[in-house]
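Try it yourself: sequence plus zinc ion, in.
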Amino acid sequence: MPKAELHLHIEGTLEPEMMMALANRNGVALPYADAEAIQAAYRFNSLQDFLDLYYTGMSVLHTRRDFFDLAFAYLEKAASQNVTHAEIFFDPQAHTERGISFDTVLSGLTDALDKARRDFGITARLIMCFLRHLPEEHAFDTLEHACRCKEHIFAVGLDSSEAGHPPSKFDRVFAEARRHGFVPVAHAGEEGPPSYVHEAIDLLQVRRIDHGNRALEDPVLVARIVREQIPVTVCPLSNRSLQVCPDLALHPLKHMLAAGMLVTVNSDDPSYFGGYVNENFLAVQEALALTRAEIATLARNSFVASFLPERQKAAALAAFDAFSAKW
Ligand code: HPA
Ligand code: ZN
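Structure, out:
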């Protein structure tokens, strides 16, 4: 199926083999002997468990070429799975904090987006995330960088350790980002309570909720998400890996669909969670016995919930419907 991917951290696509290769290329010492040892370390009890390895892993990324290689490999893989459009998170603070310049990161990523569009026809946009475990002042510094290169960054997001870092902590920097024309999104309700989802909507004025699982604990909130058709980017294999939903047979995706939520399926950090977007579709189909109609709705929703310009969105939906009719 043609599809868009809307919840994907580019640093989370760093495969063990590339991590080892870049560690050698850049003379970075990793606490792993080889790619198998990296893979063996990927057992997580919580979001924080994963984040600790995620930040260690990305320490091998140093040069513009490294960021190009990382993003191009993802886009090639995504295109091979018939992802025709991707809206990609990146975490500039995780790089600037260790002395890599914002421009090194952004130029490597945009080089890859340009080449992938030429080579595979895949379109992509960048969503710059603020790390929520850091103070809001740091996010303001990062936003200043983004304002110098607005043409390359479409949206701002919020990620990293959720518990104890509510959206309200970033109220002012999101207001400033919106004033500059960046579209707001935020991770909310992955581990954090439903009140964080409320805050993301009311204070940050998000146009999509990333994860949103715990919104289901609050029926008033669910009714609002349905009424306003606020898209929710669900990441099944991530949810299983991080113990948000250890058993996919109990994953709420089918209920979310039945409730009328505009939900999509995404891979989050595919190198860490065991699969790209198609593996996520296969896993939920198998665990939840999704019907063909439900699968088609999930894929179609990815275009509806995308930030594609209206004409491109209409074209993508027409192409999807033509595909769907044949299928
Ligand atoms: N949640 C929060 N922060 C993240 C994630 C996630 O799933 N992936 C990468 N950073
Ligand atoms: Zn995420």
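One thing you can check immediately is this: The chain has a mean pLDDT of 98.
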